[in-house]
Recover the amino acids of this structure.
């Protein structure tokens, strides 16, 4: 996609990582004036009272370094959130660390827990920062593919991916980009494998509150034998529609969280001092705030999925996340990347090709991801444009 640039000066740990597809496609949208249904960020901010709390924190002197593990009020609020929603008990002083978004939590977990040569089992299609994090830690990724049309976990494939070098399973549910929400049975299968082989599980649950049609998100840390081996990651970005704040967290047993903090303290040490008290306040807001967001997103999911289906596309309606996936073959394309590069020109819309999230590129070749976390008028205009181009 982007012109190849020399990487001769690059250390091996970053060689071949390229530019993230999200930056690349958002840049393409900016350059072409296309509607951006690529990168997953809402185009309306979250609740104004959360912004006010951050402004207030800035005005009242929360402008110097926050403590490395996070401000106590936020760590307490994260522990209270895990207890209230999932019955998970955490010591906010030892079992919670605040990070610069979920991205830093994932990177710090991999750097803190994976030794060179260790194998990391990861669901494919994978979120791109996982690949980078595993590579920077010197780990070896072992993908387990979620396949169209239903993108369920293949437990036999999971078992087959485990070797004596396996150190860690990196999970993501609700899953980006497929929208799969792992069921209790699927999670129980992962838990069984993890316990049997004494593996650590790092689970990225940033879309924990964005599930639809009554589908429930189950944190794997709640399954028997898992609390002591699981690092759970989330972020205020998706839960409250403030992706630019980059306030995330990792929770779990003290030793595992300690390993995350050991790496994190030398990546950023700390960030977002005035944002942290605002997120603490947000986590204490009534559940109605989360329910309203979820109901509204489900409605927008349906608008986008119905619109894409009416173009003749096979749409995989997601049970969670910001994203719907389609097979674009009915539009005469075999390759999602070629389709996404043509799309701004043909239709004035940007979307994300799945194939960049696979080792097994064939499994994702004809799949394209569309974000529905956008305003109604933006979705309507995008569908109108797609209808004119392909209808
Ligand atoms: N994990 C997944 C699955 C994501 O989709 C994203 C993008 N929001 C992130 C992690 C990164 O989260 P943050 O912006 O909090 O770093
Ligand atoms: N999580 C967002 C997505 O999947 C992108 C975040 C980023 O640009 N790194 O679209």
């Amino acid at each position: 996609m982007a012109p190849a640039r020399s990487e001769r000066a690059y250390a091996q740990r970053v060689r071949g990582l390229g530019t993230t597809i999200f930056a690349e496609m958002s840049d393409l949208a900016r350059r072409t004036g296309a509607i951006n249904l690529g990168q997953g960020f809402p185009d309306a901010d979250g609740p104004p009272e959360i912004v006010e709390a951050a402004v207030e924190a800035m005005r009242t002197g929360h402008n110097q370094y926050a403590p490395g593990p996070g401000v106590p009020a936020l760590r307490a609020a994260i522990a209270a959130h895990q207890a209230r929603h999932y019955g998970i008990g955490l010591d906010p002083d030892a079992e919670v660390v605040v990070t610069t978004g979920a991205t830093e939590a994932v990177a710090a977990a991999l750097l803190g827990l994976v030794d060179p040569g260790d194998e990391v089992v990861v669901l494919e299609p994978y979120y791109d920062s996982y690949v980078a994090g595993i590579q920077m830690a010197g780990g070896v990724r072992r993908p387990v593919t979620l396949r169209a049309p239903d993108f369920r976990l293949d437990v036999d494939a999971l078992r087959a991916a485990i070797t004596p070098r396996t150190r860690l399973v990196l999970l993501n549910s609700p899953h980006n980009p497929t929208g799969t929400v792992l069921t209790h049975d699927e999670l129980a299968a992962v838990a069984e494998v993890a316990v049997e082989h004494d593996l650590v599980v790092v689970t990225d649950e940033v879309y924990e509150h964005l599930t639809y049609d009554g589908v429930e998100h189950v944190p794997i840390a709640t399954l028997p034998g898992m609390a002591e081996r699981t690092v759970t990651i989330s972020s205020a970005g998706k839960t409250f529609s403030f992706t630019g704040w980059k306030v995330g967290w990792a929770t779990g047993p003290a030793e595992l969280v300690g390993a995350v903090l050991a790496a994190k303290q030398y990546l950023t040490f700390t960030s977002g001092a005035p944002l942290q008290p605002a997120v603490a306040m947000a986590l204490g807001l009534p559940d109605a705030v989360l329910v309203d967001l979820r109901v509204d997103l489900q409605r927008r999911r349906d608008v986008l999925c119905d619109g894409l289906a009416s173009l003749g596309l096979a749409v995989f309606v997601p049970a969670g996340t910001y994203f719907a996936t389609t097979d674009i073959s009915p539009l005469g394309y075999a390759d999602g990347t070629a389709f996404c590069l043509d799309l701004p020109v043909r239709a004035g819309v940007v979307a994300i090709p799945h194939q960049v999230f696979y080792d097994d590129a064939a499994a994702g070749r004809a799949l394209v991801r569309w974000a529905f976390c956008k305003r109604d008028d933006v979705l309507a205009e995008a569908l109108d444009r797609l209808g004119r181009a392909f209808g």
